[in-house]
Every structure is written in structure tokens, then in C-alpha cells.
Amino acid sequence: MSESTMNRTALVLGATGAVGKQLLKDVLKNGSYTKVVSVGRRPVDLEDSIPKDKLVQKTVDFENLEAHREDFKNVNDVFCCLGTTRADAGGAEKFVKIDQGYVLSSAKLIAEENKAADAKLSPVHFLYCSSMGSNKNSPFLYPKVKGQTEEALSEAGFEKVSIFSPALLETVEPRTRPRMMDKIVMAVFRPINGLLGLDQIISVETVGKAMHRVANNSSLKPSDVNAVKTSTIGSLVSRFSNSDIHSIGGDSK
């Protein structure tokens, strides 16, 4: 049974991205939050059919988050879909700054601004969209940065951290910046994925729904019992695989 989210506030980071926008739309259409805050570098453009009465949009400068502390206060569930690619960022250094730096700086502020007076950890549930294959020890930049970010979030000071590891993302809306390599990979891999039943392509809409449903229902757990652990500071960390995301975020839910 789903838990009530009445009198609760959701905060969405990265709602202009492919996953973040679908998540925000699902939260606004199907969620029961009293307030939904979207924090990003620019406002999110939503179609008229999406209810916006609970939505508050905050435009922030991630290079100067200290000036925006008020925007991160009094939240309960944080959906973090911030991310980029090396090509979109304009190089490795900028990629790390956005994909990892912005995420961790935001998480730090959120943990600091939403502490319970009598508790060591912030009661916020932080839900992070990472990537399949993340590994802090990888020789490759993208999975290494994702793995490092996951580890840092596990120790960031939240009671609960949920990490989602989707495979190859299939968009439902055109990206603001077309990615030719994504189109090539999808064109080549889609028939292989279908023929071999690999189930390694997942819609961004499914990912968004899965993240929302996990926030709304604490009974939803990763299928692998070893994917739920306690961090060194006591945070409950759950890692949802691509298969878990398909199962939780599917239309049958």
C-alpha cells in the first residue's frame, strides 16, 4: 500500500533533463505532495495538460549555491536527476563539475538545511538517478564519476539514499541538444536487444515513475537483498538495478 505524501514536499534536481522532466510530470500528475519544487539552471517548460498548482520553480546558480540555501529547506523527498555527458559539458573537467560537483554540493546543502534537532542524520530520502555499470574504480571517466558520486551520497548525511542504475535510456521527447552517438547506438543495439531478450533499453518515463514510486512506498525494495546496505554513518542505501526499475516503473503498477 502506498504511503501518504500529504503535507510533504518533493524537490526535483535536473528536471530539464530527459529523466528529470518525465519524473516531474509524473509527480505533478500522480503524486500527492503538497508542494513540488524544481531547482535547476533554467525553468522547465511543461505542456498545458500537466497540473502546475503545486509546482514552484527555482532557478539557481550551481556555482554559488550558498546564495540559494532557502530554496533547499523544508523538503522530504529529493529526486536528483542532474547529469550530463562529456560532450555536452565541453570536456572532462566540466563534466565532473556538473555531473558530480553539482550533485554533491546540492546534497550537502539539503542535508544541512533539513536536519532533525534530535537526530544525527537528515530525515530526507535522497533518490539519485545514476547509471548501470557505475564503478568508482573504473578506468573510464563516466562510470568512475558515477560510482564515486554514489559512494559520496551514501555518506552525505541522509537517513535513506536510493540509487537507480538504468541501462540504455530511450527518450520520449527530443533532447535540447541532439546526441548523434545516442541515435547510432540505439539503432545498432535495439535489434540485438530484442533478438536476444537482453532488456537493456529502458524508457526515461519508466525510470521517472520508478523513482517516484519508491519514494511513495517504502515496501518497494531491490530484488537483490545484497543491494540494501547501511553506510558507515548509518544511512540505509538501496541500489535498484535496471531490472528493478523495469519492474517498479512499468505500466502495470
TrEMBL record:
Cellular compartments annotated: Mitochondrion outer membrane
The protein's name in its UniProt record: NAD(P)-binding domain-containing protein
Topology of the protein relative to the lipid bilayer: Peripheral membrane protein
Domain NAD(P)-binding positions: 14-158
PANTHER family: OXIDOREDUCTASE HTATIP2
Main location: mitochondrion
InterPro entries: NAD(P)-bd_dom, NAD(P)-bd_dom_sf
Family membership noted in the UniProt record: Belongs to the FMP52 family.
Signal sequence annotation: none
Species classification: Eukaryota, Fungi, Fungi incertae sedis, Mucoromycota, Mucoromycotina
Organism the protein comes from: Mucor flavus
SUPFAM superfamilies cross-referenced by the UniProt entry: NAD(P)-binding Rossmann-fold domains
